[in-house]
Amino acid sequence: MLREKIPVGDLFIGGDAPVTVQTMWKRPLGETIDDVLASIHDFAAFGCDLIRFSAPRLEDARIIGSIAKRSPIPIVADIHFDHRIALEAIRAGVHKVRINPGNIGSREKAETVLRAAADAGVAIRVGINGGSLPRTLRNHPDRGEAMLLAAEEEIGILEKIGFSRVVFSLKSSDIESSVKANTLFSQRYRYPLHIGLTESGPLVPGTVKSSIMISRLLLMGIGDTIRVSLSEEPIKEVMAGVEILKALGLRKNGVRIISCPRCGRSTFDPHAFLARYEKELLKSDKSLTVAVMGCVVNGPEEARHADIGITGAGREVIVFRKGSIVYKGEAERAYKAFWDQFSSFEG
Ligand code: SF4
């Protein structure tokens, strides 16, 4: 079932729009807006499409609104319990508000927020979380179904006032119940879906679990925007999210890196090379494949078949471009030759 397509700032979520990647700001809003904006520009360069900020206080809503006015990507305000903060965020110019109508105080307050959002053209994300289900559903034996039922309670409020600029998320820290909730929801409703595991953990376990869950859904055609939620800096969430989309062929732009793990045979160090260049490569939106290889066992073939490749080969390092050798010699010059080729490559 094709999802509704809703605008969020300059972006679209759902329908035939590309799947987007998002992250969340992880510190209190104590630093200057210029510093926050510099970070957002960096996240955007790595492929982040939108970013969410918590707004526990009224003044946070105003700060987030100021950020939204100068941000290169849409800004989402995350609000619980106090509908006045949601109203202030909408007034201040955020592009989307994450609330749960059911926990914003009362049905009347939820309706006030939804009407204000409708008047301002602001989207809403309703986020159902398996860890904070309504009391009536907490002992439900099936977590996936319980999340669906919680979402349906919220839909009742939305439909009463005809508000449809909505994205839903149904998340838990468990893969199976999250997949089930999103699958059931997508069979019944056309609201776009923000997918991801919540509280998925530190970098490696969190990325692995999130990738499995998100990929299972995306491969079924479910999911319009993704977040890899990690106990890590936002940039790691963005990098993981973008790599999931690239691996599934859902994001064509960007550099695909093939690199060997290195072993006792290596005569060129892929780890050191990537420590120097990985971020610059991943920030590029050129569409090409790069191979970084340690020795002659697999190096020359992988490097030859990539758009640009660098590999150890005995005492020398070879740089390939589209299958042809463009440099052969010592490592430091090979670095430069590689980077010159990359810079001049029209991807
Ligand atoms: S390419 Fe060479 S260095 Fe890299 S893992 Fe394979 S054998 Fe080891």
UniProtKB/TrEMBL annotation:
Keywords: 4Fe-4S, Iron, Iron-sulfur, Isoprene biosynthesis, Metal-binding, Oxidoreductase
Keyword S-adenosyl-L-methionine: no
Pathway: Isoprenoid biosynthesis; isopentenyl diphosphate biosynthesis via DXP pathway; isopentenyl diphosphate from 1-deoxy-D-xylulose 5-phosphate: step 5/6
Superkingdom of the organism of origin: Bacteria
Record's cofactor remark: Binds 1 [4Fe-4S] cluster.
EC numbers: 1.17.7.3
Catalysed reaction equations from the record: (2E)-4-hydroxy-3-methylbut-2-enyl diphosphate + oxidized [flavodoxin] + H2O + 2 H(+) = 2-C-methyl-D-erythritol 2,4-cyclic diphosphate + reduced [flavodoxin]
Uppermost EC category: oxidoreductase
IspG C-terminal domain segment(s): 257-340
Cofactor(s) listed in the protein's UniProt record: [4Fe-4S] cluster
GO MF assignments: 4 iron, 4 sulfur cluster binding; 4-hydroxy-3-methylbut-2-en-1-yl diphosphate synthase activity (ferredoxin); 4-hydroxy-3-methylbut-2-enyl-diphosphate synthase activity (flavodoxin); iron ion binding
Pfam family, one: GcpE_C
GO biological process: isopentenyl diphosphate biosynthetic process, methylerythritol 4-phosphate pathway; terpenoid biosynthetic process
Residues covered by the IspG TIM-barrel domain: 5-241
Residues holding [4Fe-4S] cluster: C260, C263, C295, E302
Family per similarity comment: Belongs to the IspG family.
Described function: Converts 2C-methyl-D-erythritol 2,4-cyclodiphosphate (ME-2,4cPP) into 1-hydroxy-2-methyl-2-(E)-butenyl 4-diphosphate.
Protein name: 4-hydroxy-3-methylbut-2-en-1-yl diphosphate synthase (flavodoxin)
Species this chain originates from: Sediminispirochaeta smaragdinae (strain DSM 11293 / JCM 15392 / SEBR 4228) (Spirochaeta smaragdinae)
